[in-house]
Specification:
Number of domains: 1
Number of helices: 4
Helix content: 25-40%
Strand content: 25-35%
Number of strands: 5
Shape: globular
Strand order of the largest sheet: 1-2-3-4-5
Length: about 140
């Protein structure tokens, strides 16, 4: 059975487990600066790390932050061997519940080459934001 917990603090071993999932799911990128210090800073300032557990083993994660208007869903990933079992949907449903609790509009980004994630997000009511291009400056 899958359980979802909301974490506002992380220790190093748990963060290492989270990072392993991000790497195995292909969403880790050193340019994102997703180190323990930056994640802790985010969590100390209103962020939440959702953790999906299967038989006491970490199975998935979604990192949430906000700007007091929108709830941003980042780094949603499920261990590849456990995908297609509804774990991602449970993580997303929990994120949407938090958005409702806070009165924030949920927002996320998904790579166009990730049809499984896009299907999940569309099935939960997300739509493409026409006319926008995502831009970022790193470094």
């Amino acid at each position: 059975m899958t359980t979802i917990t909301r974490a506002r603090a992380l220790d190093e071993p748990l963060f290492e487990s989270i990072t392993r999932i991000w790497i195995s799911a292909g969403i880790s990128n050193p340019a994102r600066m997703d180190d323990l210090a930056s994640v802790r800073y985010n969590l100390d300032n209103g962020g939440i790390m959702l953790l999906a557990w299967e038989d006491e083993e970490l199975a998935g994660t979604a990192w949430l932050s906000h700007d007091f208007r929108r709830l941003y869903i980042h780094h949603m990933a499920v261990e590849p061997a456990l995908q297609n079992r509804g774990i991602g949907r449970l993580l997303l449903q929990e994120a949407l519940q938090i958005a409702r609790e806070k009165g924030f509009q949920p927002k996320l980004e998904v790579h166009r080459d990730n049809p499984a994630a896009r299907h999940l997000y569309h099935s939960c009511g997300f739509t493409d934001l026409d006319g926008y291009i995502t831009m970022i400056r790193r470094g």
